[in-house]
Amino acid sequence: MPRTLEGQITMEKTPSYFVTKEAPRRIYNMSRDTKLIVVVRNPVTRAISDYTQTLSKNPSIPSFQALAFKNLSTGLIDTSWSAVRIGIYAKHLDNWLQYFPLSKFLFVSGERLVSDPAGEMGRVQDFLGLQRVVTDKHFYFNETKGFPCLKKPEGGSKPRCLGKSKGRPHPKIDGQVVQRLREFYRPFNMKFYQMTGQDFGWD
User: Fold this and answer.
1) Residue set of the binding site
2) Residues forming the annotated binding site for 3'-phosphoadenylyl sulfate?
3) H helix or E strand, kind and range, residue 76
4) In this prediction, what percent of the chain has a pLDDT beyond 90?
5) Where would a tag sit more exposed on the chain, N or C end, judged by fewer CB atoms within 10 A?
6) Across the strands, what pairs with 142?
7) pLDDT tens profile 17-58
8) Which 8-state DSSP code applies to residue 60?
9) How far apart are CA 191 and CA 185, in angstroms?
10) What is the C-alpha separation between 54 and 159, in angstroms, rounded?
C-alpha cells in the first residue's frame, strides 16, 4: 500500500480478498485499523453472472448446470466450483471475524447499489467518516446497461459507466436448477444475515 498522509484515505479493491483464506491474517498484520467494505449480491445471481463472464471468454465451457452439480439427479451441488463457492458468504466471513471485529466491516448490497446508488454510497461515506458529497445528483440510470452511471464532473469528460464486461445478458438457466441453488444457499444466507445483522432479502 502507498504511504498515506494524515487526513488521507488509501483504498484498494480486490474482490478475491474476501474469499482468499490467507488475506485476513495478512491484512491484519499490515494494519488492524483497516476498514473493510464487502459488496455482496444474491449468490445465485452472482454464480450465473460469474458463469456468463467465463462463457464470454471461453464459449466451449460446459453448461452452467453441468458445472454447478456433482450429480444433477440427486441435486448435489459442486461446492468446489468457484462460481458456487464464492457465494457461501457466511463461511468466508467466519474466516475474517477471526481477525477483525464486525465494526470494521460495511456490507454493501449489490442490489441496492443498482436500485439506490446514492443511498448505498451515503452509507459508504458515513462508514469512512467522510462528508456526504456523492448524492443522487451524481447518478443517472443507463437503460442499455441496466446499471446506474456516474454523471460527468463539472468540466470533466463523458459520464463514467461500468465497462463492457458488465450488464451483459445472462444465459437462460433451467428454473429447477435455479430453485435447487436457492435451496442450497438459503441456510448460508440466513447465517450471513445473522452474522451481519442485515437482511439482504435474497430469500
Assistant:
1) 41, 49, 166-170
2) 41, 49, 166-170
3) strand 76-77
4) 69
5) N
6) 147
7) 999 999 999 999 999 999 999 999 999 999 999 999 999 899
8) T
9) 10
10) 27
Q: What is the dihedral of CA 147, 89, 180, 203, to 10 degrees?
A: -70
d(CA 143, CA 156): 22
Q: Where are the alpha helices (DSSP H) in 31-133?
A: 43-57, 64-68, 82-85, 89-96, 110-115, 117-127
- Which residue's entry shows cell 452509507? 123
3-state secondary structure of 1: coil
**At 38, phi and psi to the nearest 5?**
-120, 120
- pLDDT per residue over 139-195, tens digit each? 878 777 678 888 766 556 676 776 665 656 778 899 999 999 999 999 999 999 999
Q: Which domains are present in the chain?
A: 15-164+182-196 (3.40.50.300)
C-alpha closest to that of 185 among 71, 64, 41, 65: 41
The pairing of beta strand 147-150 with beta strand 69-71? unpaired
* Cα–Cα distance for residue pair 15/20, rounded to 1 Å: 9
Q: Is residue 64 within 8 Å of residue 171, measured between CB atoms?
A: yes
DSSP reduced 3-state for 182: helix
Q: What angle do CA 183, 188, 190 make, to 5 degrees?
A: 90
